[in-house]
Automatic annotation (TrEMBL):
HAMAP family: Ribosomal_uL13. GO terms for cellular component: ribosome. Part of the 50S ribosomal subunit. SUPFAM superfamilies: Ribosomal protein L13 (SSF52161). NCBIfam families: rplM_bact. Belongs to the universal ribosomal protein uL13 family. PANTHER family: LARGE RIBOSOMAL SUBUNIT PROTEIN UL13M (PTHR11545:SF2), RIBOSOMAL PROTEIN L13 (PTHR11545). The gene is rplM. This is Large ribosomal subunit protein uL13. Keywords: Ribonucleoprotein, Ribosomal protein.
Length: 139
């Protein structure tokens, strides 16, 4: 018989990942797996059993593609006519790398309330400092 994990039985850890020198996409697939909880033996698809993830040095990750900073665009739309706004990949990485990481991970998670709850457990910081040292040491 298969054991179904209940939300009250889930034990969450804090995992710190350093993005410096790592490929952007490879790092984020690992992050999505941890947020879903697929690395745990108690994984249940309809329960949020993943861990918290803290990414540091987000602006120092490696990216493939020679012209990606100028060519790749991220679009957003408010729903009104003519309100499409575009932002270049390079500008987004420079101004707000946390938004870039969250957009990429959001595409790898379920498009439900469960996926939104998983995304809230992702914390991204451009530098090496983060305010979650108390949680990480308490493992």
């Amino acid at each position: 018989m298969t054991k179904i994990t209940k939300p009250t039985e889930v034990k969450r850890d804090w995992i710190v990942l350093d993005a410096e020198g790592k490929r952007f996409g490879r790092l984020l697939t690992e992050v999505a797996t941890i947020l879903k909880g697929k690395h745990k033996p108690c994984y249940t698809p309809n329960v949020d059993c993943g861990d918290f993830v803290v990414i540091i040095n987000a602006s120092k990750a490696d990216f493939t593609g020679t012209n990606k900073a100028e060519d790749k665009l991220y679009h957003r739309h408010s729903g009104y006519f003519g309100s499409t706004k575009s932002e270049k990949f390079g500008d987004l990485l420079e101004k707000n790398p946390a938004k870039l990481y969250k957009l990429a991970v959001r595409g790898m998670l379920p498009k439900t309330t469960l996926g939104r709850a998983m995304l809230k457990k992702l914390k991204v910081y451009a530098g090496s400092e983060h305010p979650h040292t108390a949680q990480v040491k308490g493992k």
